[in-house]
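Internal tracking record. Fields below are filled automatically when a chain is submitted to the structure queue. Please do not edit lines marked as system-generated. If the sequence contains nonstandard residues, flag them in the REMARKS field before resubmitting.
Queue: standard
Priority: normal
Entity type: single polypeptide chain
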Amino acid sequence: MDPLSALRDYTIHAQLDRIVAVNEEFRFGNDYVFPRTMKTAYRSKQGNLYTLETLVFFLHNADLKFTDYLQNALSRGVPAITFIDRKPLLDYLTGKVSSTDSIVFPLPQHPEPQNNLNSSSGVDFQYRPEDPCLADVGRGGGAVVEPVNGKEEDFMSLISGIERPLRDRDSLLECKNKDFYSVLVASMKSEEERQRIESQQRKDGLVAKSRLLMGVDDRGGGYGDDMGYDSMSKPKMHFKGGKIGEGVPIILVPSAFQTLITIYNVKEFLEDGVFIPTDMKVKQMKGPKPECVTVQKKFSTDRNRVMTAYEVRDKPSALKAEDWDRVVAVFVLGKEWQFKDWPFKDHVEIFNRIIGFFMRFEDDSVESAKTVKQWNVKIISISKNKRHQDRAAALEVWDKLEEFVRARSHG
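SYSTEM-GENERATED OUTPUT FOLLOWS
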């Protein structure tokens, strides 16, 4: 008898307690002995044959929740069945259904009694060892051969013993007349050239020329083409009366790590709408800390928006007098010392000329924002765990910032 039929017979007659594991075998009372890792004729939805050990362990844990069963199987090192196979497998083994398409060989409709079966089982099955469909599968995954001189052999072991590998993963990478080193060199040169061009653009102010700051130019405003900017005009905004100075506008962020937005993670937050903790970004970064990061708004509900570039810095002390004319926003830490040596007399003047943002987690205590509530700043809340909500918070920052810049440019 094959192991699946024997296990079903014992399950139907509530004799699972007679199945005893001894070393690497399962003993079905005094009737049968099968290897524990022997594959049965029950094929899973994924295509593999379940072993006898897997099915016996499943039956002993059939009353548990599936998650508890999986944990038990993992702790015991026993391969588990899949959730989709659970009910049909249990129905078949307990006799609720007489057959299933998951059996790899057809079970006989009228089984003939066998002399070696326990008479108390009540149900006998025909076993035909000459039928290739019913060949037992051994530990190696091949069909078991009849014992020769008392020693059991299997085909897969014999085949594996004479196998000789023709190619391995190293030889597969050896391509005739192909030089992958040149590909590596070319890609490195391309990346170096891209970085050089971006660096030169920042130095020459080409970013500001190609992306007009909110559409204001020498002629008093307006956009020249359908792309949202006039490529022939040059942004020239002065701080007279509170307007923005000439060049790329600046956003200041704290250099302290106890704030949510820093120069390390500001680009991902403002450009991609994703908050990444600073400590995580520091671990991912290669090279020194950047002195300046260029960001632009890459997402918007307004198709006619203007592409505007901003410089993000975290060292106000390094700004020149004319640079302060370009500062349009600041992410505040909530501490007075952040504004030490700033060229303004008080918070009123600061937040009249510069829009302030305070980032906080939505479940933080009210005390964390107690100080900034006395200032004219925008409080932006994000979730500690729900990253899909970051985009809405970043969009709120952009909307407030662009509204402030438009008002200040036309003030």
